[in-house]
Write a structure and sequence with these properties.
By secondary structure, this protein is of the alpha+beta class. 41% of the residues lie in helices and 21% in strands. Strands 6-5-9-3-2-12-15-14 form an eight-stranded mixed sheet, with no helix packed on it. Strand 20 and strand 21 form a beta hairpin. Helix 3 packs antiparallel against helix 4 and helix 15 packs parallel to helix 17. It is globular, with a radius of gyration of 28 Å. The two termini are 26 Å apart. The protein binds O-methyl-L-tyrosine and zinc ion. The site of O-methyl-L-tyrosine (0A1) has 12 residues, from strand 20 and helix 2.
Length: 881
């Protein structure tokens, strides 16, 4: 048991470990309720640690059976055990061997940290602090050891036994029903990368020959009967392995690479050395059961975990404050991989949408924290959009500022200098500074200052002087613990678009041109003057969303319409439409609240219509242009006194107006982009489906173009889950009369398929109407619902709380009460999951007064409950601070 209100851990207090572990030999006897772990640790005092220090090992919910030092059982007074530690009070100050025997009950492990069972399969999750639930150990990422793991189990129960590294031995135990396997991982690693799996699993095998000719055996293990669904993941794995060699010079370094898919997993997946363990949602796919988005996620997450082999495993983090060192960098790498495999502009649009939805929202609320936090109480709560997504944006900015070559040189130096080490953000930045001769001291603020920087930009053309002036002002808003901010280094990528749509040359007053069209903004205020500007240009600002900032400019709605048609930067063509839409939606929301007539969205509709009519555009891109900002995007931009019902009404009105005004071209596109052949998950085919389904949903919202009839037709004829699910969603939202029938049909088709049933739960919880909360409550009693499966909980309750703003934010507060009850009900069994669900309340302060009071009351009720986990306690405390 851990303390619910532990002292904060601070980055400034970092000290190197007093003792090092060079080797770990594990002997694991798997048993459903009484697994025995024998650990032999080869330890020695750390020359960089305190002299004469005791050996302090972490532990959590362990039963200690025996303890020996150099083969001698230790007397009871030589050590002390607490619920969270084992201390050898006065160990000899020399290399020594500790032998520790612990006893675990994997079947009772509902936290899904340490060794647990998922559908009978034994598996582990050790990041961040789960290894201490297997044996007593210095559970910190800067203790790197070489592991040898012997796993023993009933052959019948666990014919497959997997560990890190390469398998070095296996066999039967004569005269018993048990067998064993021994795995050896030659690469020193921190314990959070340890993993083992034992179970009855089917295997999909393949091989990969690396750039230097090493033959690697690839295996993906899934529940029996599901091997046919692992083909896409295997293909994505091989493409990832090749890409990492080509893009970063990173080659795989073991003879085996295994992936295991399990149904019960708190997160997406885990990069354990040579043995990635995945939430099966991110492995299993077939056209009938997985959507295009599922395929894209599988590709991205397979790549992400694989890329960790170099950025995370070969070079790991010194401490958990440096989490973004591996996560931000690896997200950047998986984003680049997907961009290369798919459409780069569309990938960027999708990533920026997610960044704004999750990270900008987080950064604007009480849970805001720097990309590298300076303090934490519960590290599990820092696997956040800020660490991951903003962390990736910071790496992207580094590349923008240093150029492709400078960036690659910096990465090469990083791999060369820090291979085998546990590194810091300072180490990382020093590689880029040294490789390119750039001072990155101010840039490092991106890791330390939280909050989304704002750029206010005013542009003015001076016809008499044939010049164009841009006045740029930056500010960073106050965030928890950081009232005052210093100016950041912001790469401002821009173009001046001339009347004919061509970029004008960018020549500054001194005759120089900003390299790559990127200005460096590093002071609170700048004036940039461009010369030889004969005609009035429209500035295209923050092209490619090169900097993760909020932008306010004096661009008119005509300017935005112009950019939507002419900007050569596809991201900004998209962004121009989004900016127009947001402007409209904010105004319309105010109009709804004050009972005024809604404004006319004519310019916006014209811009959308032009995209739809342009045959040169990628359908996937047009689909993005036609997708108006979400209710939470609108709420975030409004920023205070938000009434979710008014936001919903404004958005629905806009969508109806678009669906009505563009009924004909939308229906035309729906017909034109029908699939030419059988389903294929490739990006081009997926893009066509995105566009068709977006058209369909706008038509149905407007009651135009026979939208509902088309949706019903699509549902019935669908040969793939993308069309089936999208049409089902459209029908559930816009055809209440048909809803029960199609939901029942869907259930009957997929009742035995957990991943598809999750979609069935999720769709119902997101219907924006007053009966939904009752339906969600009722569904918690459905035989297929279980609080034990995180995917199921997220599908029903997570998507209600984050994907149904009007019903979660019901004016009577019932949505908040329901969430609070669920969080409290889950906290005992799975605190990580409970804390994540509670994150849905992080934007409570932007709500209008009535709802704000009700949300606060729900949070206070949680805060006042005795026996909270550190996970929930941390989130609720920060949310209320
Ligand atoms: N390192 C993983 C994320 C992860 C973190 C904690 C976990 O514990 C349940 C699981 C996974 C990644 O970035 O993919
Ligand atoms: Zn990761």
């Amino acid at each position: 048991m851990r303390d619910a209100d532990p002292k904060p851990i601070r980055l400034v207090d970092y000290r190197p470990p007093d003792w090092l572990v060079d080797t770990v030999d594990l002997d694991i006897g798997l048993h459903p309720t009484a697994t025995v772990i024998r650990a032999r640790l080869g330890m020695r005092p750390n020359p960089a640690g305190r002299e004469g220090a005791p050996i302090v090992l972490d532990g959590d919910e362990l039963v200690l059976k025996s303890l020996a030092l150099d083969g001698e059982t230790l007397a009871g007074n030589a050590y002390s055990v607490t619920p969270s530690s084992l201390t050898l009070l006065a160990p000899p100050q020399r290399a020594l061997t500790l032998e520790i025997e612990t006893l675990l009950d994997p079947s009772a492990n509902t936290k899904l940290m340490g060794l647990y069972r998922s559908s009978g399969t034994y598996c582990t999750q050790c990041e961040a602090e789960g290894f201490r639930r297997i044996t007593y150990f210095p559970d910190r990422p800067d203790v790197l050891a070489v592991y040898t793991t012997r796993i023993e189990a009933e052959r019948e129960e666990a014919p497959v036994l997997l560990g890190n590294g390469n398998k070095v031995e296996e066999g039967e135990l004569p005269g018993t029903t048990r067998h064993f396997a021994v795995w050896h991982d030659p690469w020193p690693k921190p314990c959070y990368l340890f993993a083992l799996v034992g179970g009855r699993l089917d295997r999909v095998g393949d091989r990969f020959v690396t750039a230097t000719g090493r033959d690697v055996e690839l295996g993906i293990y899934v529940e029996p009967g599901k091997a046919a669904r692992a083909g896409y993941a295997m293909d994505a794995l091989k493409r990832s392995m090749r890409w990492d060699e080509e893009a970063f010079g990173c080659e795989y370094d073991l003879d085996v690479f295994n992936i295991v898919a399990v149904a019960d997993f708190n997160m997406g997946a885990m990069e354990n050395k040579g043995l990635n363990i995945f939430n099966d949602k991110y492995v299993l796919a077939s056209p009938e059961t997985a959507t295009d988005n599922d395929y894209a996620s599988i590709e991205g997450i397979i790549a992400h975990e694989y890329f960790h082999n170099w950025t995370g495993n070969r070079i790991t983090c010194r401490d958990w404050f440096q989490l973004c060192l591996k996560e931000g960098l690896t997200v950047f790498r998986d984003q680049e991989f997907s961009a290369d495999q798919r459409s780069r502009p569309v990938k960027r649009i999708i990533d920026v949408r997610l960044l704004k939805a999750y990270q900008f929202t987080e950064d604007a609320g009480p849970l805001a924290h720097p990309v590298r936090p300076a303090t934490y109480r519960e590290i599990n709560n820092f696997y956040t959009a800020t660490v991951y997504e903003k962390g990736a944006e910071v790496v992207r900015m580094l590349k923008t500022l240093l150029g492709s070559e400078g960036f690659r040189n910096g990465m090469d130096l990083y791999f060369e200098r820090h291979d085998g080490q546990a590194a810091t953000i300072e180490d990382f930045l020093a590689c880029f500074a040294d490789a390119t001769g750039t001072d990155l001291a101010q840039f490092a603020l991106w890791y330390a200052q939280s909050g989304t920087p704002q750029l206010a930009i005013t542009g003015e053309w001076n016809p008499a002087e044939r010049s164009y002036r841009l006045d740029v002002e930056q500010s960073v808003p106050p965030t928890p613990g950081q009232p005052d901010k210093q100016p950041m280094v912001i790469p401002l990528a821009l173009g001046l678009v001339g009347p004919s749509g061509e970029d004008l040359p960018l020549t500054l007053a001194d005759g120089t041109s900003p390299a790559g069209g990127v200005l460096t903004v590093d002071a609170p205020r700048h004036s940039f003057v461009f010369r030889d500007v004969a005609e009035r240009p429209v500035p295209s600002l923050n092209r490619g969303f090169a900097a993760p900032v909020r932008l306010a400019s004096n661009l008119s709605s005509d300017d935005l319409v112009f950019l939507a048609r002419h900007d050569r930067d596809p991201f900004n063509r998209f962004e121009a439409v989004q900016t127009l839409a947001l402007g409209y939606l904010i105004e319309a929301t105010q109009a709804v609240r004050s009972g005024r007539n809604l404004p006319e969205p004519a310019a916006l509709i014209a811009a959308m219509g032009a995209s739809l009519a342009d045959p040169a555009l990628d359908p996937a891109f047009v689909g993005q242009v036609l997708t108006v900002p979400s209710e939470s995007d609108i709420a975030r931009e409004i920023g205070r006194d938000v009434d979710p019902d008014a936001v919903y009404a404004a958005r629905a009105t806009l969508r109806r107006a678009v669906g009505t005004a563009l009924a004909e071209p939308l229906a035309g596109a729906f017909e034109r982009f029908a699939a030419p052949g059988p389903y294929s998950p490739d990006a081009a085919s997926a893009g066509r489906r995105t566009l068709r389904n977006t058209c369909l949903s706008l038509l149905a919202e407007a009651g135009a173009g026979e939208g509902v009839a088309r949706a019903l037709g699509l549902y019935r004829a669908a040969d793939n889950m993308t069309d089936r699910l999208q049409s089902l969603m459209t029908l559930c939202h816009h055809a209440p009369g048909q809803r029960a029938e199609v939901l029942a049909d869907f259930y009957e088709r997929f009742r035995d398929d957990p991943l598809v049933l999750d979609k069935w739960f999720g769709i119902q919880s997101q219907i924006p109407e007053p009966g939904t909360l009752d339906r969600v409550r009722e569904l918690t009693g459905h035989p297929a619902f279980s609080l034990r499966n995180p995917n199921r909980v997220r599908a029903l309750i997570g998507s209600f709380a984050t994907g149904n703003p009007t019903q979660f934010n019901r004016a009577d507060g019932a949505g908040y009460d329901f969430l609070a009850d669920t969080v409290l009900g889950l906290d005992g069994s799975n605190p990580q999951l409970a804390a994540r669900l509670l994150g849905a309340l992080k934007s409570w302060r932007v709500l209008e007064e009535g709802r704000r009071g009700k949300a606060e009351a729900a949070l206070r009720r949680i805060a006042g409950t005795a026996g909270l986990s550190p996970d929930v306690s941390d989130i609720v405390t920060r949310s209320l601070a």
